[in-house]
Amino acid sequence: MLRPAAAVLTASCLSLAAVPAAQSGTAADGVAGATPAALYPAPGQPSPEANGNDDAATSTVHKDQGDLRIATLHADITADPSAEAPVESLVNSLATGNHTQARAVAQTAQLNAPDVLILTGVSYDEDQQIAEQLNGYLASGQYGAAGLDYPYIFTAPTNSGRESGVDLDGDGSIGGPGDAVGYGEYPGQYGTVIFSKHPIAEDEVRTFQQFLWDDLPQAELPETSHSDLAASVLRLSETSLWDIPVEVDGHTINLVTTALATPSEEADIARGDDLRQVIADYVTGQAWYLYDDKGEPAPGNPAAHYVVAGLPAAKTGPENLDVLLDSPVLQDTQPEAVTQRPLSDRPGSEWHTDPLATRHVPGDRDLRTSYVLPSTTLPVSDSGVFWPGEGEIGYQVVNPESSYALEDRLVWVDLTAGS
Predict the structure, then answer these.
(1) CA angle, corner 231, sides to 228 and 237, nearest 5?
(2) I need a surface site. Which of 20, 228, 233, 374 has the fewest CB within 10 A?
(3) Rounded to 5°, angle at Cα 250 from 244 and 256
(4) Cα–Cα distances in angstroms (integers) from residue 234 to residues 178, 209, 215, in the given order
(5) Mean pLDDT throughout 79-104?
(6) CB-based contacts of 50: which residues, under 8 Å, 6+ apart?
(7) Cα–Cα distance for residue pair 372/263, rounded to 1 Å
(8) 57 φ, ψ to 5°?
(9) In the beta sheet, which residues pair with residue 139?
(10) pLDDT by residue (tens digit) across 154-189?
(11) Neighbouring residues of 278: CB distance < 8 A, sequence distance ≥ 6
(12) Residue ranges of the alpha helices (H) in 31-128?
């Protein structure tokens, strides 16, 4: 049985965006929901009625009453970096109500109906309009799916694209994605947004954007021609690392969320390995070296009920996931594709038969990159990866031959929160 909220984290924490979305306007510490815009169908996308209820049951799973469904999806909602004002151009594109990627993300969420949704790979803007607009897409039913009501939203700045002022990549000049604190072709490129049906304890939120990579004991910081200067500016997190307490019927679940940007070199993989080690230490209460963005010690709380969720894995290259998957305090439920259509019958099936995979990689094997890992103290009733086959509802969202398809798939875990 979950412990009462009072038994979990009580440290003074950074208060950021976590306010009811029903309010109008925005505030420095909050994101309010936008009125849903009028949305229009994308060509070739079938409606649920066209497929029939039987097929719907093969690609989605009904959540038991009283369970808490937590899901994550790498949304990849970013702007054209060549635009004069990338973030502004994305805001304007979303405002039309017919942004293809946002509609696909919203439909995916609506078909799976999570209580808490973590979207990674979403550009961040200071006014937090993007988070508001996405909440509008989620609230507006896509292609016959029911809209979702998320009264609480959390988002915060990201290190992605943030200028370091240092030649981190050693190319002889300062500027560009290789010299950003976290990889990004413009500031805020890869952020995260959390949507929740349950209140977020904003006074207990902890963020770790400023934690220096060099402050991690035995850090694998790469050697560069500017190593001393780089060590003074390079943060461990490429994007964001948060601890977000969500209050669920008198209990508290702490979401530990993170995401990698676009790592492709050995230095990025080392950074990811170190980030995962910090998370592993944090959920066991052994991150004695860690400090939050208020400068306060943040070793973690071994008595807390954590759910590690997001995109802690890289697109390419070897990486150490065992530190999380084999953690004595986390459980890997190994969510599999929810479908009655054999993966071996899918387009490009020679590469795409791993039922745990969450990312489509053209011409190569699919990867498992998105995770939801609950504490061993949390009872799990079910889990899955949204990967319907041809003829099943939502197939266009995952069909690699469709222009509407997402590169990543949603993964979810159901917690029996009241038991």
Answers:
(1) 165
(2) 228
(3) 20
(4) 12, 11, 10
(5) 94
(6) none
(7) 21
(8) -70, -20
(9) none
(10) 999 999 988 877 767 666 778 777 778 888 899 999
(11) 211, 216, 236, 241, 287, 290
(12) 48-51, 53-59, 86-95, 100-112
The CB-based long-range contact list for 277-283 (8 Å cut-off, 24+ gap) reads 277/216, 277/323, 278/211, 278/216, 278/236, 278/241, 279/241, 279/308, 279/312, 279/324, 280/323, 280/324, 280/327, 282/243, 282/256, 283/256, 283/308, 283/327, 283/329, 283/330, 283/375
Residues 183-237 have pLDDT tens digits of 889 999 999 999 999 999 999 999 999 999 999 998 877 766 457 777 888 899 9
Distance CA 311, CA 74 (A): 7
Phi, psi of 155 (to 5 degrees): -150, 160
How far, in Å, CA of 108 to CA of 142, rounded?
9
Whether the Cβ atoms of residue 29 and residue 16 lie closer than 8 Å to each other: yes
pLDDT at 45: 34
Tokens of 111: 């078909």
Rg (alpha carbons) of the chain, rounded to whole number? 20
Tokens encoding 253? 């679940």
**What proportion of the chain, given as a percentage, has pLDDT over 70?**
81
Specify the CATH number of the domain 5-415.
3.60.10.10
The domain segmentation of the chain, as residue ranges, is 5-415
Measuring CA to CA, which residue among 25, 129, 114, 35 is closest to residue 77? Answer: 129
